[in-house]
Every structure is written in structure tokens, then in C-alpha cells.
Amino acid sequence: MERVNVVSQYNEVVRSPSVTLKLPSVVSLKDYIPLPEKAAFTRFNVFLRDKFRCQYCLKSFKVEELTFDHVTPKSRGGKTTWENVVTACRKCNTYKGNKSLKKIGINLKESPYTPNNFELKEIGRMFPPNFLHQSWNDFLYWDSELEP
Predict the structure, then answer these.
(1) Best CA proximity match to 135, nearest among 16, 23, 21
(2) What's the CA gap between 72 and 100, in Å, rounded?
(3) CA separation (Å) from 65 to 82, 94, 116?
(4) Per-domain boundaries in the chain
(5) d(Cα 102, Cα 80) in Å, to the nearest integer?
(6) Neighbouring residues of 86: CB distance < 8 A, sequence distance ≥ 6
(7) What does the pLDDT look like over 7-24, one tens digit per residue?
(8) With 60 as the cut, is the pLDDT of residue 131 above it?
(9) Can you give the pTM of this predicted structure?
(10) What's the CA gap between 66 and 61, in Å, rounded?
(11) What one-character-per-residue DSSP string does 24-90 give?
(12) Which is nearest to 87 in space by CA: 114, 63, 106, 105?
């Protein structure tokens, strides 16, 4: 669709019946597309907002070990919104079940809120990917000190 420039490629190819292409590893947009101010309400963005920490026991977990929990359970009228969903580990989520926080004597350290995309981007800088293909090294500078 001619929307990007291919800057670097993997050695792998993808094929269709009529075309064979090297798989791009780094692309640049031809036109700047600003992020919308409102962040998409996704499971991963909830985990990112909560810094991959269970909001009940406050321990950090890998993304595959996390769930999200409705602070006010859906069975009690709770909605699936930024303000009612928090990151939880499986153990805490199972323990809480469909009970209210007051009933089980838990208080959240921070109230859930709607983040903006800028905030999620800044939080994301604290959690660089565990593996990056070497072709990305010239384009990403997660924690490297810049030369003067």
C-alpha cells in the first residue's frame, strides 16, 4: 500500500501464489500518524498501566501469569472499564472471586484510572522487550547512555 519504507529485513521470506517477499524487520512510516489521545482498552494496556504488578499482592509477574479482575464484580453490576478493571495474579484473582474488596478486607493501593497513550508509552520504556532481533539494534536505544 506504499505507506512505509522498508529499512531492514529478516532473512525469512513470505510467499503468496504470485509474490515472494523478504519479511521486513524495521520499517519507517512515510507519513507521521499521531497516536490518538485516548488509549485503547486492551488487556495488555491494563497490564502496562499497572506495570505488570498484581494490584492485590503488589508482586510483579510475567504477562502470561497475569489476568485482569473487575474490582466491582460483573455479577454485582461492575462494568468492564478502565476504572473498574485491575491487573491480578491468578492466585489473588481466584481468592477474590466475585466478592467485594470490603468483604475480603483488601484495599487497592491505587485506584484504577484511564491512562492516555503518552503515559502508556512512557511506562512501556521501563519494560523493554526480552528479545530483539539484531536488526533493531541501530534503531532502539532503551537504556543506553547517549554520547555527547
Answers:
(1) 23
(2) 6
(3) 20, 13, 25
(4) 1-33, 43-120
(5) 20
(6) 46, 50, 55, 56, 68, 69, 71, 108, 112
(7) 888 999 999 999 998 998
(8) no
(9) 0.70
(10) 7
(11) EEEEEESS--PPPSBPP--HHHHHHHTTTB-TTT--B--GGGEEEEESS-GGGT--SSGGGEEEEEH
(12) 63
Find where cell 501464489 sits. Answer: 17
Residue 64 is placed in which grid cell? 502470561
Condensed to tens digits (0 to 9), the pLDDT of residues 55-85 reads 999 999 998 899 999 999 999 999 999 999 9
The CATH code that applies to domain 43-120 is: 1.10.30.50
In this structure, are strands 85-89 and 20-29 parallel, antiparallel, or unpaired?
unpaired
